[in-house]
Amino acid sequence: MGDPASTPADRPDPDTDPGRGRRIGVDVGSVRIGVASSDPDGILATPVETVPRVKQRGRNGGIPADIARIAEIVREYEAVEVVVGLPRTLRGEKGVAAGLAMAFADELRVAVSPVPIRLSDERLTTVTAARALRDSGVRARGQRQVIDQAAAVSILQGWLDERSAVLRSIGEARPVSGDDA
What is the bridge-based pairing of β-strands 81-86 and 117-121? Predict the structure, then answer.
């Protein structure tokens, strides 16, 4: 993918949108990976599971267990698209975490091909998820897996909402039928 500092986050694009189908959201952490999925209509994101992160990446050609599990989820849900969170600093820059997320996305891209992988700006999703869970009475201690899943839900829901707005604006710009022309 290149230099993390120069790689922009993806945006929903009608020209590359795969259409109706489930999407998978992924929050890549250094210890755990939160996974979420959408309904087939791409309206609502829900938590799926938390996958333990593999510390050593495969060098012998084998697929790391974390990549293999997420690829299995992608197949199981018959996903049409995977949205991986791209963490940025508060100043909008990409640091070490973004580089790790991009490297993970590259490995996942190979494992789930031809399903497209999108990178989505995920500034503060984990912080927001932790705060929302705490406000609803869930304690952070011992609940890291729930927080990781909630962050994945936040990443995916943001993508779904933006996708819906983009497709709606394109739909309004197109004539409804050939009779109107």
Answer: parallel
Taking alpha carbons only, the member of 152, 157, 57 closest to residue 110 is 57
**Model confidence over 84-97: pLDDT tens digits?**
999 875 566 667 88
* Nearest by Cα to 10 from 21, 29, 25, 32: 25
DSSP single-letter state for residue 180: G
DSSP state of 74: H
- Closest Cα to residue 111, out of 85, 87, 82, 86? 82
- The span from the CA of 14 to the CA of 64, in Å, is 33
pTM of the prediction?
0.81
Ordered strands of the 117-121 beta sheet: 45-52, 32-38, 23-28, 81-86, 117-121
86 phi/psi in degrees, rounded to 5: -110, 100
DSSP H helices, the chain, are 65-76, 96-112, 125-135, 144-173
Q: What is the mean pLDDT of residues 31-39?
A: 96
Class of domain 20-173 as given by CATH: alpha beta
Torsion of CA 79, 113, 76, 38, to 10 degrees: -20
